[in-house]
Known about the structure:
Layout: H1 23-33, H2 38-55, E1 60-67, E2 70-81, E3 86-87, E4 95-96, H3 101-114, H4 143-147, E5 161-162, H5 171-181, H6 196-210, H7 214-223, E6 245-249, E7 252-256, E8 260-261, E9 270-271, H8 273-284, E10 288-289, E11 292-293, H9 297-304, E12 322-325, E13 331-339, E14 342-349, E15 354-360, E16 362-363, H10 370-379, H11 396-399, E17 404-408, E18 426-433, E19 436-442, E20 450-459, E21 462-465, E22 471-477, E23 480-485, E24 489-493, H12 501-532, H13 540-563, H14 570-575, H15 579-596, H16 603-624
Parallel strand pairs: 6-16
Antiparallel strand pairs: 1-2, 1-15, 2-3, 4-9, 5-8, 6-7, 10-11, 12-13, 13-14, 14-15, 17-18, 17-24, 18-19, 19-20, 20-21, 21-22, 22-23, 23-24
Helix pairs in contact: 2-10, 3-6, 3-7, 12-13, 13-15, 15-16
Amino acid sequence: MKKTITILLLLSLGLPLLHSLPSAQAAAAGSSDFSITAERAEQLLDPLMEEEIRKGHIHGTAVVVTQGERILFSKGYGYADVDNKRPVDPAETLMRVGSITKTVTATAAMQLVEQGKLTLHDDINRFLTGYNVPVFGKNPITLHHLLTHTAGLDETVYEINALSRSSQLSAEAFLRQYFQDQSPVREPGEQYAYSNAGLGLVGNLIEQNSVADLNAYMSKHVFTPLDMPSANLTVPENNPQLAKSYTYTNGHYEEVPYTFLSIPGAGGLSVTPNEFAHFMIAQLNDGRYQGKSILKPSTIETMHEQQFAEHPDLPGMGYGFYRGRLAGGIETLSHTGDVDGFHARMLLIPAKRLGILVVSNAVIEGTTPMGQKIEETLTGLIAGPEKTGRALPYTREQLQPYEGTYSISVAPKRGWGKWLYFLGGKDFEVTAADGRLILAGVFPDGTGERKELSYVPIAEGLFQEEGGGGKLWFEQGDHGWHMTIPQEITMEERPGLLHRPVFLLAVYAGSGLLFIALLAVWLVRYVVRLFRRTKKPVSMHITAITLLMSIFLVVQMVYGNAEITYGYPGWFTWGISSLPLAAVLIAVHLLWRDGIRPGKKNGAALGRCALAAGCIAYTAFLFYWNMLSVHAW
């Protein structure tokens, strides 16, 4: 999940790229100095995997390496099913690859582009029936925008998952409701923001323009030609070969239940690792696998080319691929995937015709992902010396404009889940020094550790990590500076106190606890007066207001926050979420009776009026953050 703001869109059409070489040239380039063999890969990976399993960091992992038109190395480590001691077998074990599905969906969409059933740069509403995608600004969303995560769509949270196949929404039903509740939030084509909804929409475009269910289309036009009979976009829950997945918490592993994605084109693929290798081979061999072609060579080239970049000196995005470089400047194509405890990484090196797939069935928060460690181990054999941009001689004074604290919080701007903004966020602190910037924060590398990294300027607004390949891109917008970690996140300068997540969380939780405390006090007062048999009444208005607000807050915290990805039943959306509105009606009556209606006012009356006003103000807060049955927007 990633939020971005205005960044530079450039298409580098004139730069010759390594991956655009004809396959014969690529083969020649790869055969002369290629240093990975099956034996060498096993020597490197076996001790690494044994150490990780010994530490208890993973349960099972499959590693597959391809070169040219064959599988060079394939091995499983650990267990696919711990209780039954069933080992991981890359040829037999079904594993979920999460968002790597997006690359397969992009491939299928490009097949329809070849056939003229879809186009890359026309309004996608031309190809949709049953619903329309709203327009933000003047320019429509295109397939190009969807495939590069630049469509400007809002974050997808609500109802994206289902706990059973019977409760799973179709992609069309999900997207129709999504666009009704959450229209786009920025101009298409201007900035990168990772989007499940975008690739889910691509999958539905395929369905609507091929007159076939997405899984059926994939089976006929992608999986069968590539000899991938195990591949499926629905969870094969009754298949004994499907691996189980686990989370590690407080020293214990817990099995993760399977969920069913409403937009399977964004992350629903299950497949054996060896069969997915056939897809990687086709991508590295002009769209062909064992004599069968799924795309034209020119289309494969288009998918691999730079289609969007935050800065012209960065590799940028292809269609369905993240472009990058190894040390030494060797270009790569990659994608990762996370779903229900599974973590997958795919890396392609076109110049070497090399593919690496790693899939694990356990992810440990706060550690470097296993796939990343394996990639670094294998690519270290061929990467060569680190190539960095030439640092520009900037002084501390010249770098001071970039200083500040930059913040990111991943949450929808509209619809259910808008309140996730104040349930979490990250701050990054930028400090200028002579010739470099110091960036401190928790980086999106999976370790969860706070680090300080040094970056040197290599172009106007562009910085490269000293001793590493990381980049930073700064751009000044209408409301201050933006900082982008390319292909990851874009951050704004930290807002004022009243707009910070920590302050909003304090308002939400603190005010809620106040209502609960007042209810407890009122109940105690009622019981005390009951036993004393005093005739002095307890305000039923206050009791009703605090009771309604307390019920809402407890259910919201216990149920609403946890179940948002599965959607809410009517009793919650129209029942529980309407309780604050009912409390407001009582508060308005209380204000009229004790504050507006003529008559003598005492301290107790003024106190009741203050509580009623607080109820109205807090409900307005909940309304703005879309926590009620009626949303602000």
